[in-house]
Amino acid sequence: MKILVCVKQVPDMESRFRPDAAGVWYAETDLAFRVNEYDEYAIEQAVLLKEQLGGEPEITLISVGPDRVVEAIKKGLAMGADRAVHVQDPASHLKDPFQIASIIAAYAKGEAFDVIFTGMQSLDRGSSQVGVAIAEMLGYPCATTVVGFEYADGTVTVKRELEGGVKGTVRLKSPAVVTCQLGLNQPRYPTLPNIMKAKKKEVTVIPVEQLLKQDARLVSAQFRAPAKKGGGVVLEGDVADQVDRLIGILKDKTAVLR
Amino acid sequence: MKTLLVGECREGKLLESSYELFGFAAQLGAETAMVLIGNQGALPGYGGAVYLADAGKYGEYNPDLHKRLVQAAVEREKPDYVVFMHTSYGWDLAPRVAALLQAPQVSEVVALAEGGFERPCCSQKMRQVVQPVGSPVVLTLQGGAFPALVPGGAPQQQPLDVDGEGRTEFLGYEAAVRKGVDLTRAEIIVSAGRGVGKKENLPVIAELAKVLGGEVGASRPVVDSGWMEAGAQVGVTGQTVSPKLYIACGISGAIQHLAGMKKSGFIVAINKDKDAPIGEVADVLVVADVMQFVPALTAKLAK
């Protein structure tokens, strides 16, 4: 069995974002990057499946991006993936979701993966398109927003998270694509021995030109902060002073304190 | 300009959010038609063309067939835009339809923008204006971004059918877990988010709730981490609440959380990050570390 996990590296969302020189995406200066949170659940589920099947499956990670994404790849390898593919693309941020999916699908086409795991979306772009688009391009069935995963004898049974806490159970035959929602599992922390082992694992580098044959269907024209709706009071400074001012406001504006 | 709106049916009923599609089309000033995989009882209050496929035959979740049903409606209507809500149905189906139509897709549109569509990015902290290349364009709309509009009238039904089977088998729905406190009735809720730091810090939040005579809620990451029970979760996938006072402690304000609490009477957010999206709905944003501010507030209130 062969498993593919798609991993994206994204900035820490606590960061302060500023537009890049072209004004169409964020500038990378001063940003700390990490593995997209949803993808950590995808990696964990792949490793759990490998463990369930007695270590037989081979897990390949794929990540599209500039040199920095090697850090995300290393984390995935330390969590238990066997090998990785780095599709080297210094301008991946300018590719649209369709192009990113086409890059991954072009790689996966000849590899006959049985299960492909992705996060349900990325924290930075958040299109929730890439996983489904990969499935469509490969002709695989796909289930999205998965919070429960089981595999037996070529059949994948998943719980999809719907609105209002309702879940829907869906069964599909592998090969299949599954996009992972938060809460699917508990992503593990890599242990030091596994971090050391990961250093010896194979990382294949493929220049993006070899895999990308599609033009963009979306152009990012502008990147900016949302217009402030206004009206809200912002309290900054000394904590004791903030406490007094908040209590004053609550007494003034609400009936809950008297 | 013409839009094909993709309505959404759950357990035989049209989801209310489907009316936001009409609100969007009105802002766009576009002609409309709707496609719905549902039944007679789920038809919208809308006097235009509705392409109706039978959910009894095709299933409410059968993406392979729903994709082709939408495609069949697209072939008849030749719309400029195919529009979904950005729901678990929409974000699942829209990319499949986009792939089939070889169309560009813009996800989670919040506004029309000059030359394109505005959508959130960076966990709702920022906005991106996206211009699609090619036609038709597939869109998904963020819930609540466009006003619900019931156009009224009796639908002109057009039957819709395709052949074949889907590759996914839908086994059924599982009801929401409802354990613990009913937050929908609480007058004061103090909610804990990831910014609380660790499970061991949660008593600090509970103390504040106790002093105020309120209940304790949580954002999704706190529940996913196993720090609190799923029943405490506020948001799209948890409880929708409307207390008189909502205090969000260390909650950044993902759209799913905001959707569950923004109807609260008065919202106080405590967050280190001044740019956190929770600031958009908060009446008061306290820029501070939760673990410094909350104990100080509790102590003062307890006096």
TrEMBL record, chain A:
Family matches, as InterPro entries: ETF_a/b_N, ETF_b, ETF_beta_N
Coiled coil, from the record: none
Residues covered by the Electron transfer flavoprotein alpha/beta-subunit N-terminal domain: 23-215
Keyword Ligase: no
Stated family: Belongs to the ETF beta-subunit/FixA family.
Protein's recorded name: Electron transfer flavoprotein subunit beta
Pfam families on file: ETF (PF01012)
TrEMBL record, chain B:
SMART domains found in the cross-reference section: ETF (SM00893)
Keywords tagged on the record: Electron transport, Transport
InterPro entries, A to Z: ETF_a/b_N, ETF_a/FixB, ETF_asu_C, ETF_asu_C_CS
Species of the source: Geomonas oryzisoli
Organism phylogeny: Bacteria, Pseudomonadati, Thermodesulfobacteriota, Desulfuromonadia, Geobacterales
Name assigned to this protein: Electron transfer flavoprotein subunit alpha/FixB family protein
Domain Electron transfer flavoprotein alpha/beta-subunit N-terminal per the UniProt entry, residue ranges: 3-174
PROSITE patterns in the cross-refs: ETF_ALPHA (PS00696)
